[in-house]
Automatic annotation (TrEMBL), chains A, B:
It comes from Rheinheimera lutimaris. One of its GO terms (biological process) is homoserine metabolic process. The active site is at S171 (nucleophile), D333, H366. Homodimer. This is Probable acyltransferase. Its EC number is 2.3.1.-. Residues 1-19 form the signal peptide. Its main location: cytoplasm. One of its GO terms (cellular component) is cytoplasm. GO terms for molecular function: homoserine O-acetyltransferase activity.
Amino acid sequence: MFSKIILFLCVIASGTVQAMLVQKQRFTLDSFTTENGQTIAPLNVGWEAYGKLNADKSNVILITHYFSGSSHAAGKYHADDAAPGYWDAIIGQGKAIDTDKFYVISSDTPVNANAFDSNVITTGPATINPATGKRYGLSFPVVTIGDFVEVQKALLDSLGIAKLHAVIGPSMGSFQAIEWAVRYPEQVQRLIPVIGSAYMDTYSAIKLQRWAYPILQDPAWHNGNYYDSGQPLQGLSTALAYITQDALHPDSFNPRYSAISADAGIHQDITALPQAWQQLLAQARLRAEKQDANHILYLVRASQLWRAGMGDNWQHALSRVKAKTLFLPATGDLLLPPQLSKHSAEAMTAAGNKPHYAEIPGSFGHLDGVVGISAVAQQIHAFLN
Amino acid sequence: MFSKIILFLCVIASGTVQAMLVQKQRFTLDSFTTENGQTIAPLNVGWEAYGKLNADKSNVILITHYFSGSSHAAGKYHADDAAPGYWDAIIGQGKAIDTDKFYVISSDTPVNANAFDSNVITTGPATINPATGKRYGLSFPVVTIGDFVEVQKALLDSLGIAKLHAVIGPSMGSFQAIEWAVRYPEQVQRLIPVIGSAYMDTYSAIKLQRWAYPILQDPAWHNGNYYDSGQPLQGLSTALAYITQDALHPDSFNPRYSAISADAGIHQDITALPQAWQQLLAQARLRAEKQDANHILYLVRASQLWRAGMGDNWQHALSRVKAKTLFLPATGDLLLPPQLSKHSAEAMTAAGNKPHYAEIPGSFGHLDGVVGISAVAQQIHAFLN
C-alpha cells in the first residue's frame, strides 16, 4: 500500500510526463427542450476527452466544470500553450485520474461564461438564434443545472456510453455531478463533489445576485441587447472582480494586491479608488474580453436555482443516489464553505447512503478546489480504484 | 464569586428594571483640523450619558459606535420608544456596564450614517458648510478613525474628564476604542474591542468598496451633488442591503428571507429578481430614509483606512497601549472574522501587552456583537470590576 502511494507521488512529482495534446470537439443537438419547457434549436457544446475508451465502454469518467471554467480540464491544445487545463495536476498518465486506465470526458455547459473564447463552444444568449437571425439576448430561456446534465447525457448517449465509473466536478461542476447521480443513479458508480453542495441556500443565492448587480446596473447592458453597441464592460469587469475575490481566502488575496495601509491617495481624495481595487478590476477587464455579460447572468441564475433533483425536497432527492460518494470541500472556502458539503453529506447519510468526506487544505479558499486540487490527489486516486 | 455571578444574572434576567430615559446633547467644536490637514468649522456631534459622574471624574466608560450605529447605546428617549439603544442589554443599573457605578458616555461620529435621524447630530457631507451656504457634498474632507477619536477627546476635555476606566465599542467602534488606547495610553485603563480588529486588511477593505459601488454607480448620485435632486435611493438601498447580509451568518439569514428553492418565478424569467433579494432591498429602502449616501461613502473610506496608530506599522503602534485589553470577536462573524481579533491580540502580545481573548457565541454572525452581546455580559462585567 505504502509503496503504491510513494510510486504514485513520484510520478506526480517527476514532471517528466509531457503535456497531453488535446482537441476540442463539437456536439450538436438539433433541438433541446429546457426544464421550463422552452426550445433551443440547435444547441452546441464543445467537449474534450483524455485517454482511451475501452471495448465495453466501462472506463468513463465525466468531469463537469465550474462557473468560470470550460471543458478544458487537462492537457494543452499546443505544446507551447501557456498553461494546461485547470485540473491537469490530477488528470493524465499516472495521475490521480489516470488516463492510462480511464477515458475522461469533459464538456462545455450551455451559457458558458467564455462565450468569445475560441476554445469554447456553447449556445447561450450571445448565440445567433437561427429562427430570427439575431442574438438570443434575454429571449434565451433560463437554464438549470438539470439542463446542463441533460445535454451531457445526450452527448454520452451519442457516444454509446451507458455507465460512468465516476462523475467529478468542482463548484458548479459539483452541482452537475450530484444531479447526474440523482437523475441517473443506475449509471453513476462514483461521485466526487469538489468544493460544492447539494443545494444553494438563500444566503449564497443572494451573494450571487450581487455578482449580477453591476451588469444589470450598467447602462451599456441595455436589457441584454448590447451586441451591436458593445458589451457592458464596466459591469462585467466588476462582476468578474467580485468572483475573483469571493473565490479567494484573505491569506492568498492580501499578498497579491497593493496593501490598503500603504494607499496614501485614498486618504486625500474621497473619489480616489483603492489601488488594490483598481488592480483587481484591471485583471478582470482582461478576462472580460472573452466573456459575455448575459452568459454570466444565466450562470448566476442556474446556480441560484440549484438544488439536487430540482424539485421541492433536495434531501429526499439525494435518496435516489446509488453512487459511492466522496465530498471534498476546501477548508478555507468562503464562497461555498465546508458547512454546505457537510449538510449535503448529512442529508445523504440520512437517506441511507454512506458518503465519504475529506477537506482540501490550502490558503486559496474556494480556489483550493481548482489550483490546490493536488493536495487531495491521493484520496481521489484511492477512491477511484 | 459564584453568588455574585448568580445575583448579577438574576438582575439581568429579572426584567423589572425600567428603561433608562436618556437625552441627546450637542457638542460643538468651532473648528476641527482633520488628519489630512483640512478644516471643518464648525463640527457638531451628539452625545448621550448614562449614570453619574463621580467627584474625581474617575468612573467614566466611553462607548464608541459601529458603522450603522449612533450614540444611542442604551436607554430610551421616551418610555414608549419601540426599542432602547443597541447595547441596552449590558448598559444600565445592575447590568454588565453598571450605571450605578459608572458614568457611561457615547458620542455620534462625524459623517454618521444616520444623517437624517432626528436623534443623531453629526457633521458631514450632508451638512451645510457655513462658508458657502451649500451642503459640503464631496468637498467634505476624508476623515479617519483617528479624527473620530480626536473629536471624542475634545468632548471629554470639555467635560474635564482626563481618565477613562474603559473604552468599549463594537465593529467600527472597536477601531476607535483601540485608537484611543494607542493615542492616549496614560488615559485609557481598559480596552474592549468587540467584533473588531486593530487593522483593516486589503481583502476586507475591498469588500467595503463593494458597499460603495452601488452608490457610485447610481446616476442619481451625481458625484455627491444630489441634495437638490434627491438621494440615490437605489444605490443607497443596495449598499444597505449588502451591509445587512454581510453582518449576518447564513444560519440567521436563511430563516428570515423567502427560500430561494421555492422561488418559481426566477426559473421562468431571467429578469425576475429573487424574492429574498426584493425583501432585503425593501427593508434597506426603509432604513435609507434616515441615511445619507455620501456619509456611507465616508464611513467606508474611514474604515478602509483603519490601522492602529494610522501610520506605517500598526503592530508597532500597539506597543504604546497600556490598557488592560479584552478582545471579543464573534465566533460566526463573516465580516470581521475572529482571525482579525486573533492577529490583533497576537501583535499586542508580541508588543509586551497581555490581552485577554474570548469569543461571543451565537448564530447572528457579526451582529452577535450587537444583538447577542448579553452572551458575554458576565465576561465584560468581570473585566471591568
